[in-house]
Write a structure and sequence with these properties.
Order of helices and strands: HHHEHEHEEHEHHHEHHHHHE
Distance between the termini: 52 Å
GO molecular function: methyltransferase activity
Shape: globular
Bound molecules: S-adenosylmethionine
Strand content: 15-25%
Number of strands: 7
Low-confidence stretches: none
Protein name: SAM-dependent methyltransferase
Keywords: Methyltransferase, Transferase
Number of helices: 14
Radius of gyration: 19 Å
Mean pLDDT: 87
Organism: Kibdelosporangium persicum
Structural class: alpha/beta
Oligomer: single chain
CATH topology of one domain: Rossmann fold
Helix content: 40-55%
CATH superfamily of one domain: Vaccinia Virus protein VP39
InterPro entries: Erg6_SMT_methyltransf, Methyltranfer_dom, SAM-dependent_MTases_sf
CATH architecture of one domain: 3-Layer(aba) Sandwich
């Protein structure tokens, strides 16, 4: 339930500080600080998901859509009792609690680069009584030290775009998966192969836009190249399906429907509100190059490691 209490001043100062810190740092520190900025910008109501949501089957609020996203990836990965699962970039751990509760997987090991997320995910697992089936570790998905063939499934939601670079994680994912294991993730990529081949304005924007800050420049490749890379690593049955029509625009429509609601408004930093509102309401802006949603695709990527 939302209240109309104003966004507290002390949070405004913290936000300003975090934004400055992020701007002044590089590499892992920058990625961590950007994630800490998001913590002050969360607009979910009953959860702490950090994804745009998959807006199907009558989702009413963003939390419903985020849960639908979790279920989508769970189905794609064919999560089932007995599975040992690796989750990279788990946010606040909400998705893992849901998979543990709904699919009966035996164990999830999560890896996340942001200390705040690791701490909060551990707390959530305790509170939900699933701490004995999940381990949240701090570290980068690009530097995994797990043994070869130790997981049945590798999953991730809206995080690979930030891995510097994504390719390193794809290599680890293939290595740690058991034969017949499934890789299933949602990810953000450029829309077309053409954009991938020439340094377009969109590419420059991808590299510089704050929306994608903390992402790796090396991650600028579209579905065909993504698929080629997975195949080259030895994955089979590779599918990359665009789900953007059920992500970007429904998310934007939902935010637009709420943006002037005093209770909702009170949860947004006053520093950010005017820009955010303009961005959401400017439909033309959504379509012109330069707006991340106009240039980016939102995809579900699924692949299998073949039997030996
Ligand atoms: C957009 S959030 C998505 C979080 C969560 N999957 C969700 O949907 O709520 C991306 C997550 O990836 C994590 N992350 C970013 N770079 C990472 C890396 N190199 N290794 C592991 N996690 C990383 C961030 O800390 C953050 O938790």
């Amino acid at each position: 339930m939302l209240t109309t209490t104003k966004y507290p001043l002390r949070k405004e100062f913290r936000l300003l500080g975090k934004l400055l810190q992020a701007e002044l740092s590089t590499g892992t520190k920058r990625a961590q600080r950007i994630c800490e900025v998001w913590d002050l910008l969360l607009l979910t109501e009953r959860t702490r998901y950090l994804n745009f949501g998959y807006w199907v089957d009558g989702c009413e609020i963003v939390d419903d859509a985020c849960e639908a996203m979790v279920d989508l990836v769970g189905r794609a990965a064919e999560l089932k009792p007995g599975d040992r699962v690796l989750d990279a970039g788990f946010g606040y751990g909400e998705q893992d609690v849901r998979w543990l509760e709904t699919t009966g997987v035996s164990e999830i090991v999560g890896v996340n680069i942001t200390p705040l997320h690791v701490r909060e995910a551990r707390r959530l697992a305790q509170a939900k009584g699933v701490a004995d089936r999940v381990r949240f570790l701090q570290g980068s998905a690009t530097e995994l030290t797990f043994g070869a063939e130790t997981f049945d499934k590798v999953v991730s939601i809206e995080a690979l775009v930030q891995f510097a670079p994504r390719q390193k994680f794809l290599e680890h994912a293939h290595r740690v998966l058991r034969p017949n294991g499934i890789f299933a993730v949602t990810d953000i990529i450029p829309l077309t192969a053409q954009e991938n081949q020439t340094p377009t304005a969109a590419k420059q924007k991808w590299e510089k836009d704050s929306f994608f800050n903390g992402t790796s420049k090396e991650n600028w490749y579209a579905a065909d190249e993504y698929s080629r890379r997975l195949t080259a690593l030895g994955f089979t049955d590779v599918t990359i399906r665009s789900i953007r029509d059920d992500v970007w625009e429904p998310w934007r429509r939902y935010m637009v429907s709420r943006i002037d609601d005093p209770a909702f408004k009170a949860r947004i930093s006053r520093m950010i509100y005017p820009t955010y509102r303009k961005y959401l309401l400017d439909e033309v802006g959504q379509r012109v190059a330069g707006q991340p949603m106009a240039q980016a695709d939102y995809v579900l990527v699924v692949a299998r490691k073949p039997e030996r």
